[in-house]
């Protein structure tokens, strides 16, 4: 039996999120179904770096699983190709030691959020970008507002209510907001951990700043108020991508 | 009663093509359903510039319809927004004279075909680009091969078998092939009319040339042979876009 670390991409629009739920099509469910098929019916489990919600995409989700199949690393992606649905893709697979854990060993994660701002939405991007109808949008204010978030803070203001965790202190290593296309902008969040809906609530608040419903300085004020009610709406899942997960050497 | 010319976009991946078919979700079916809803149940028909097949997209399909509703041009798109599914979009609507016909008055059409060439496919583009697995691809040969197609020719070689039309002579006003992104290439075909599968068979033949299964010069030879069997495969619908339809002044 060997342990494998697998990096997978998926299009979140066809899934009810990561976690297995009876009667729902989930990423975990489809992945385990495929893996079980490769193992000729032997029930297989996968463990992810963390869950993603409905509509949320991944370019570099990481999971681990154990297998007694003798498949070289480079051949695994093709093996998965034959058993996974078309909206999931195995990016790479590598052999790791038996103690590796996709969730507990993760040191940092990067999330990206794609925003399109303008007076017309692009039909073909409807599952992949969050469109904000606006003629005027203060991108510079958004950029400025994000800087106070870098560092170690209690992020209670940007955490979904009724989230039960011991501590809401997290560290954001880097946050940026830049133009990536015509009317298209990208938020990047690199952090040691993310609270439930944290990236999406920060983006929702940033949209209020871009629309001038809030000032750039309000982001910092809201952070320190630690009050979810002062922050903006939770931005929709469709713009969010789990971009990669970083592990130690 | 007034006649309206409407320009619509749709994502072909969720439709069984344009034409209404019992039990199938089609573009025409959804559009007429929406229009009928706007007319409080009065049965409405739309007439398109031409059909598109399953998986084929449109950025600028044109249709006409008659209506007694008193809606100004600029308000029509929003009216449609409330009754059309999310994978269709009304781009613009304008009032035309009662003799306008979306099909018979069309003077030219532009089709585009998006190709991605490389060793890995992009999961998020799977419905929108045709991916060709290749390490080497002769783009320059493809470019060269297309030039003899410009002009007025009998395009029998690039027409699906069992197509029953009086004449297979058509005029291509312009054909081009250029890079539009990393590994992404776009064919453009502007012509006065297109035979069934014509753009897709030309693209399929061009792919054979890019893969060096055929020479650039074979395109011209195949054109003049007028024999469908000598041309390449019909490229998949997912890469094809009806880009616009041109009408006289």
Top keywords for this entry?
2 domains; homodimer; ten-stranded mixed beta sheet; Alpha-Beta Plaits; 33% strand; 249 residues; alpha+beta
Structural summary, described in words:
2 copies of one chain form a homodimer. In chain A, strands 1, 2, 3, 4, 5, 6, 7, 8, 9 and 10 form a 10-stranded mixed beta sheet that branches. Chain A contains 5 helices and 10 strands. Chain A has helices at about 25-40, 75-80, 140-145, 200-210, 220-225; strands at about 1-10, 45-50, 55-65, 90-95, 105-120, 130-135, 150-155, 170-180, 185-190, 240-245. In chain A, helix 3 packs across helix 4. The two termini of chain A are about 25 Å apart. In chain A, strand 8 and strand 9 (about 185-190) form a beta hairpin. The first copy, chain A, is an alpha+beta fold. Chain A has 2 domains: about 1-95, Pseudouridine synthase I, catalytic domain, N-terminal subdomain (Alpha-Beta Plaits); about 110-245, Alpha-Beta Plaits, CATH 3.30.70. The interface of A and B includes residues 57, 86, 121, 124 and 126 of A. Chains A, B: Belongs to the tRNA pseudouridine synthase TruA family. Chains A, B: Homodimer. Chains A, B: Its EC number is 5.4.99.12. Chains A, B: It catalyses: uridine(38/39/40) in tRNA = pseudouridine(38/39/40) in tRNA.
């Amino acid at each position: 039996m060997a342990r494998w670390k697998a990096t997978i991409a998926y299009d979140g629009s066809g899934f009810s999120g990561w976690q297995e739920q009876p009667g729902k099509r989930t990423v975990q469910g489809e992945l385990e179904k495929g893996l079980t098929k490769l193992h000729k019916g032997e029930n297989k489990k996968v463990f992810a770096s963390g869950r993603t919600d409905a509509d949320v995409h991944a370019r570099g989700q990481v999971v681990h699983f154990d297998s007694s199949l003798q498949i070289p690393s480079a051949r695994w992606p093709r093996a998965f190709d034959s058993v996974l649905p078309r909206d999931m893709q195995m990016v790479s697979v590598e052999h790791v030691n038996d103690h590796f854990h996709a969730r507990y060993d993760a040191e940092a994660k990067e999330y990206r959020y794609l925003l399109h701002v303008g007076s017309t939405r692009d039909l073909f991007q409807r599952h992949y970008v969050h469109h904000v109808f606006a003629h005027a949008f203060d991108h510079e204010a958004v950029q400025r507002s994000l800087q106070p978030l870098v560092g170690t803070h209690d992020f209670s203001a940007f955490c979904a209510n009724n989230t039960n965790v011991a501590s809401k202190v997290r560290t954001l290593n880097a946050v940026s907001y830049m133009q990536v296309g015509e009317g298209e902008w990208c938020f990047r969040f690199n952090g040691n951990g993310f609270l439930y809906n944290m990236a999406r609530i920060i983006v929702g608040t940033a949209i209020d700043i871009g629309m001038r419903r809030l000032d750039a300085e309000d982001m910092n004020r809201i952070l320190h108020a630690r009050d979810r009610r002062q922050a903006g709406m939770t931005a929709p899942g469709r713009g969010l991508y789990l971009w990669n997960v970083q592990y130690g050497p």
